[in-house]
User: Fold this.
Amino acid sequence: MAHTAGRWSDGNRQVLRAREVLAGTPDEATAAAVDVTAAYLALDTPGPDRTQHAEKLARSAADTAERHGLPTVACQAWELLATVARERDPQESEAMLGQAMSAAERHRLPLQRMYAATRMGGNAWLAEADTGGLLSAREEALRLGSVNIVHTVDGILVLDAVLRGRDDVARSAAAECLAVVRRLRLAPAVRYVVMAQATLEAHRGDRQAMEATLAAFTEWDGAGSQEEPLTRGLAGAFCALLEENRELAREELAAVQAMEADNPSTYHLGGTHGLGLLLEVLEGDADRARHAEITATAMARMRWNRQFVHLAEAVLLGREGAGADAAAAVERALAAAEPYPLAQHLGLRLVADAAHQDGWGDPVSWLRRAEHHFHERDIAAVTGACRAGLRRLGAPVHQHRSGTSGIPEQLRTQGVTVREFDVFRLLAERLSNKDIADRLFISPRTAEKHIASLITKTGAANRADLCARSAALRSG
Assistant:
């Protein structure tokens, strides 16, 4: 129960008490049941050796369960071992889950069968963004009344919707799921869904909303949790990139690596095996050997990571003078990124300058595609960067007539333009003219003119009043 609720310290105390009792009356079969529970708790307990410790306990439990004919313990052990093995060899992980599934069916253990099916579905989602197995497992969990598994799957589906750019679906599903798991105090499920919510806000380029969401994450014992690296990699790093701040993005990804070293995670989408590699290659901090080291891992073959690995390969090939091969690597990246529109277009924006510099691919076309995507999503910094990139390449920059729908009705009726609204939103952060100019790729003088126009159109008393109105709109 403590494990399900995410109370690892309480659970570990119970395990110690159980071992004290067993010391007086040794019972190998009962010890195996304690070991497998301790293994699940170990996986959640902060510490640099938690995965190794959990695997050792689960292996011992599995061996004992085999000798004593304990099918439930055996299934539980194989399911955990499969989770740990996933980063080494997905086929080994699947074989272990198949073993658990077979034992559950043979001994008529529907709950254990459902747990194995859920993990199989999770593996398929990580490998190829396939949610079919998860949806099937969710239906089975509903039939069996397993609320914990239903909402564990729901959390993954929320994150899947975020990564696919289905913001409205993600937002409503997250709210519905959180209403239940918060009431039931299922901390792991709460943390995962809150992490997905923060990722949603980050992928909209809304730092204030992202940080407000992450404040709730810390309230649910987020420090040292398996979900913590995802908050920095999927949320923090992407938010920085959508602000055109690569240095901050790299700092976030460095934090992910440090977290994973201190508290290894069985979640592998934080960027260590994908986005981080691409940014290292672009900055010249990773060479072919580093690329080979990352691509040798099973985590780099997960679909979300694979798109960035292919882009990193393209940049390296371009530097080596293999332009045709580099362009082909971009096509492989685009195929991997097909379910993930924001990541796909962000990737094109990131590699366009390198492609132009080394003379390969079609950077103008890539920047046009990215500029259109980010303009439609109303992400001003990347839109401006794409336009600036097109100008550097000598390509004409098309002006958009649309975009006014994103302006609140009151401001629109006051005659505020799309560009003025871009400036207005940034005033909530009380930035200087230079900082606003840097964010929007305009001159400080142009930023000053937009602010003067906004004061006139809105009737604000002064710049401070305008900043306060912007902050009020954002918080509202």
